[in-house]
TrEMBL record:
Binding positions (K(+)): 63, 131, 173
Cofactor dependence: Mg(2+); K(+)
Subunit structure: Homotetramer.
Biological role: Catalyzes the dehydration of the S-form of NAD(P)HX at the expense of ADP, which is converted to AMP. Together with NAD(P)HX epimerase, which catalyzes the epimerization of the S- and R-forms, the enzyme allows the repair of both epimers of NAD(P)HX, a damaged form of NAD(P)H that is a result of enzymatic or heat-dependent hydration. Bifunctional enzyme that catalyzes the epimerization of the S- and R-forms of NAD(P)HX and the dehydration of the S-form of NAD(P)HX at the expense of ADP, which is converted to AMP. This allows the repair of both epimers of NAD(P)HX, a damaged form of NAD(P)H that is a result of enzymatic or heat-dependent hydration.
EC nos: 4.2.1.136, 5.1.99.6
Organism: Silicimonas algicola
Lineage: Bacteria, Pseudomonadati, Pseudomonadota, Alphaproteobacteria, Rhodobacterales
UniProt-listed Pfam families: Carb_kinase, YjeF_N
Protein name, as recorded: Multifunctional fusion protein
Gene encoding the protein: nnrD
Domain YjeF C-terminal: start-end pairs: 252-592
Record: residues binding AMP: 504-508, 537
Catalytic activity: (6S)-NADPHX + ADP = AMP + phosphate + NADPH + H(+); (6R)-NADPHX = (6S)-NADPHX; (6R)-NADHX = (6S)-NADHX; (6S)-NADHX + ADP = AMP + phosphate + NADH + H(+)
Every YjeF N-terminal domain range: 10-227
Length: 594
């Protein structure tokens, strides 16, 4: 499991380890520096010889301390190394000071006060420039003058400096480790070597652009409860990543299990759920058809497109395995939902911004709201109980349509699964696009009707319409670190709405009102810029709806669909159009060994 850390969590883990007496801060710093050297030799084996040159820019904190370790190790290896320090050596924290002095036995440290220019001593044409200026301790914008900005922001490996590689230690300086926002002049790295676990900032916002490639080195910090990077943090504070193939595999395996018919299974199409996708009128049915195809391919047993009578022939003439039915307005929907086998709905794609859309959404939410005490709409704002035993992530048995298959075999994992983020009601609803925008002027009306079975899938514009105050905080330029992040924003929105929110982007964040959160990053080796194509979001909504029909919990359905959506794009490659995404799913499933 890939667990993503905030600066505060990383500090807490380090401090707990040091306080336990198992390791000292100095040992951790030595391992961090060694990890950086290992990483550059692994990445660029041609550097693992003696005749290379490095410039190391150290800052006033422990990130600078790591830089002094790197300088010493490379010098001992036989490199020519030049070290600059931004700050007063007397004020370095204790571990960094020790390493400053150790380096001092091998070479000189030049004061960096805005210039690298030292005519007598400058290392000409270095092979690597190390950024050990600021790490997770960045608190304000970096402003070190033009020469620094020029060096830090130069295009990695640009021609001026030959094959100069820019390596950031822990996180590029000027990048906020919690938010991925930029504070002042940022360092543009070819490679970033971080420790123990990825930080949120490596995946969010500018993180992937500035970090180059991120390598995470183990520095021997003991694993806590959960034996992952998180130590003992409550689940409600944790964020996992869609790098997390294991977790996603687990979900997909569970789906696959119910595809296999054994002599004991009474599996028929209704046991895989029935998804209803609402469509707009004539000329506007394409989005719903795309969503329907996504729902069907991902495994919903039945998918019906409900459309105005006037659009019936348009839909009917373009679908085959997908059913269609006339469904006019809120009364029509309420009547359709008397069929209790319909257990997942999708509203929004192509629906239009008329009053009808609001009425349809409210009718859908009313008909699907859990009944009974303590389950009133908009009330799923409870926290997890972190002390509660973590159950197996088995199927959510609340769906009337989905059977209760055995959990599929899981890849070996040392991390216990997260507790269930609350029960899911029998029926679930995905709201996207126009179904969100329609409530721009009265979001509270929507929030009052939402329930724990809902998933909202806004892109940045839609998010802003529903949560303008949260978006304002998120969009404000960062002036201090750690800055308010997309994780903070999505969590806050999920709490307010009382349901799962999937906030789209290359850094898609999925949050549940309990605080449970994950990031589906389409960056680094999962970068798929061709996914930004018309209709791609409609397919995602449909895929989530399909997984909900299969009985997955909204939080899991949203995360798994987002992950598979990116996998489909990667598998297909450039040239992809929205229609290709669902059709790629079988190949992705096969590649997963299903
Ligand atoms: N024992 C430990 O705590 C370990 C720490 N490690 C390294 O230590 C780093 C964290 O060290 P620190 O907490 O000392 O933080 P940093 O080294 O990131 O920076 C903190 C210092 O920079 C100053 N500062 C912050 N923003 C500034 C700005 N814009 N302009 C000028 N000065 C600014 C702060 O006032 C403070 O003096 C990690 O990123 C990691 O590289 C690793 O060595 C592993 C072990
Ligand atoms: K750094």
């Amino acid at each position: 499991m890939t667990e993503l850390l905030t600066a505060a969590q990383m500090r807490a883990i380090e401090q707990a380890a040091i306080a336990s007496g198992e390791v000292t801060g100095l040992e951790l710093m030595e391992r961090a520096g060694r990890g950086v050297v290992e990483a550059i030799f692994e990445e660029w084996p041609e550097l693992a010889t003696t005749s290379h040159k490095a410039v190391v820019l150290c800052g006033p904190g422990n990130n600078g301390g790591d830089g002094f370790v790197v300088a010493r190790l490379l010098k001992e290896w036989g490199w020519e190394v030049e070290v600059f320090l931004y700050g007063d050596p007397e004020k370095l924290p204790p571990d960094a000071k020790v390493n400053y002095e150790r380096w001092g036995e091998l070479g000189e440290t030049f004061a960096f006060s805005g210039t690298f220019y030292h005519p007598e001593r400058r290392v000409a044409y270095p092979d690597v420039f190390f950024d050990a200026l600021f790490g997770i301790g960045l608190t304000r914008p970096v402003d070190l003058g033009e020469e620094y900005a020029d060096t830090a922001e130069s295009v990695p490996g640009d021609g001026l400096r030959g094959n100069l590689r820019h390596v950031a230690i822990d996180i590029p300086s000027g990048l906020c480790s919690d938010s991925g926002k930029v504070l002042g002049a940022p360092f543009l790295a070819d490679m970033t070597v971080t420790f123990h676990g990825f930080k949120h900032g490596h995946l969010l916002d500018f993180g992937p652009t500035l970090s180059g490639k991120v390598i995470c080195k183990d520095i021997g910090l003991p694993a806590g409860v959960g034996s992952g990077a998180f130590g003992n943090f409550p689940y409600s504070d944790r964020v996992t990543s869609a790098f997390d193939r294991e977790l996603q595999f687990d979900q997909v395996m569970r789906l696959a299990k119910t595809r296999v018919k054994t002599p004991h299974d009474d599996v028929h199409k209704y046991t895989h759920g029935h998804a209803l996708i609402l469509s707009g009128g004539p000329g506007k049915t394409g989005a719903a058809r795309l969503a329907a195809r996504g729902a069907l391919r991902i495994g919903a047993g039945l998918v019906t497109v409900g459309c105005p009578q006037t659009a019936l022939w348009e839909v009917a003439s373009q679908v085959t395995a997908i059913m269609c039915r006339p469904l006019d307005g809120a009364p029509g929907l309420t009547e359709a939902l008397e069929d209790e086998r319909i257990n997942a709905l999708c509203l929004g794609p192509g629906l239009g911004l008329g009053a009808d859309t609001q009425a349809l959404v409210l009718a859908a939410l009313k008909a699907t709201a859990p009944r009974g005490p303590g389950s009133s709409p908009g009330q799923d704002r409870s926290e997890h109980n972190p002390a509660a035993p973590a159950p197996e992530p088995g199927p959510r048995p609340t769906s009337t349509a989905a059977p209760a298959p055995e959990p599929g075999p899981r890849p070996a994992s040392t991390t216990p699964p997260a507790p269930e983020p609350g029960p899911r009601p029998a029926r679930a609803v995905v709201l996207d696009a126009d179904a969100l925008t329609r409530f721009e002027r009265n979001p509270q009306v929507l929030f009052d009707a939402l329930h724990q079975g809902c998933v909202l899938t806004p892109h940045a514009g839609e998010f802003k319409r529903l949560f303008p105050d949260i978006a304002e905080k998120l969009d404000a330029p960062a002036t201090t670190g750690p800055a308010y992040s997309k994780v903070d924003a999505t969590r806050e929105a999920a709490k307010r709405a009382g349901c799962t929110i999937l906030f789209k982007g290359p850094d898609t964040v999925i949050a549940h009102p309990s605080g449970q959160c994950s990031i589906n990053s389409s960056a680094y080796e999962r970068a798929a810029p061709w996914l930004a194509t018309a209709g791609s979001g409609d397919v995602l909504s449909g895929m989530i709806t399909g997984l909900l029909a299969r009985g997955l919990h909204p939080f899991d359905a949203a995360g798994t669909a987002a992950w598979l959506h990116t996998e489909c794009a990667l598998s297909f490659g450039p040239g992809l159009i929205a229609e290709d995404i669902p059709e790629e799913l079988p190949k992705v499933f096969r590649a997963l060994g299903l």
